[in-house]
Amino acid sequence: MKVYIHPSWQNQLKEEFEKPYFKGLTEFVKEEYEQHTCYPEGKAIFAAFDHCPFLETKVVIIGQDPYHGPNQANGLCFSVQEHIKHPPSLVNIFKEIETDLGIPYPQSGNLERWASQGVLLLNATLSVRAHEAGSHQKKGWEQFTDAAIQKLSSQAEGIIFLLWGGFAKKKSNLIDVSKHHVLTSGHPSPLSANRGFWFGNKHFSKTNELLTKMDKTLISW
């Protein structure tokens, strides 16, 4: 299956596309999309990469897998399509931005506006069967997205990785902390946030402080 992904990422990940695991993964995904309703729509599977070219990546946020409800997933972690009700984790993300930066709660849950500024919104698994959370895990996506993280770690410098929750924190072993910045906290899901592990992390202001020190353009959250 031909992979349509931003040319900058195509160049960085071309070796992955030729590996046996990826060929098996593409066959699995193709069959799933033919036989079941899956999200996001096929053209948005690699949206995180398409909206955030390799050399423009300044911040990485790692999610687990796409939303599995109708019209939610758009290929960017934590993001939903326009005019869709904000899921609980996204609500808590926006609440933290409100208190951290003193800016109004946004109407749109579509985070393409972040991605276009250099925020890679990367789910570890890039597809899911409708109403079946985790249904496309352990099929090869994690190996592929780990390779993307490792490429950023080895080929770039000064990237800020925001690792929220236990799953994302495990990705820290893929990151060269001598070259990059890693900020960790609890997950923004209600279970974690309501126990005091999310609110007050100030990751959004801290990210912009780090970008200022590196003389990079700030993110308009």
Automatic annotation (TrEMBL):
**What residues form the catalytic site here?**
D65
Please provide, alphabetically and separated by semicolons, the GO molecular function terms listed in this UniProt record. uracil DNA N-glycosylase activity
Q: What are the EC numbers?
A: 3.2.2.27
Where is the protein localized? Cytoplasm
Substrates-to-products reaction catalysed: Hydrolyzes single-stranded DNA or mismatched double-stranded DNA and polynucleotides, releasing free uracil
Check the record and name the Gene3D superfamilies matching this protein.
Answer: Uracil-DNA glycosylase-like domain (3.40.470.10)
Q: State the InterPro entries in the record.
A: UDG_fam1 (IPR002043), Ura-DNA_Glyclase_AS (IPR018085), Uracil-DNA_glycosylase-like (IPR005122), Uracil-DNA_glycosylase-like_sf (IPR036895)
Keywords assigned = Cytoplasm, DNA damage, DNA repair, Glycosidase, Hydrolase
Q: What is its main location?
A: cytoplasm
Asked if the Swiss-Prot or TrEMBL record annotates the protein with the keyword DNA damage, the reply is yes
Domain annotation Uracil-DNA glycosylase-like: ranges:
50-211
What family classification does the UniProt entry report for this protein?
A: Belongs to the uracil-DNA glycosylase (UDG) superfamily. UNG family.
What function does this protein fulfil? Excises uracil residues from the DNA which can arise as a result of misincorporation of dUMP residues by DNA polymerase or due to deamination of cytosine.
Name of the protein described by the UniProt record: Uracil-DNA glycosylase
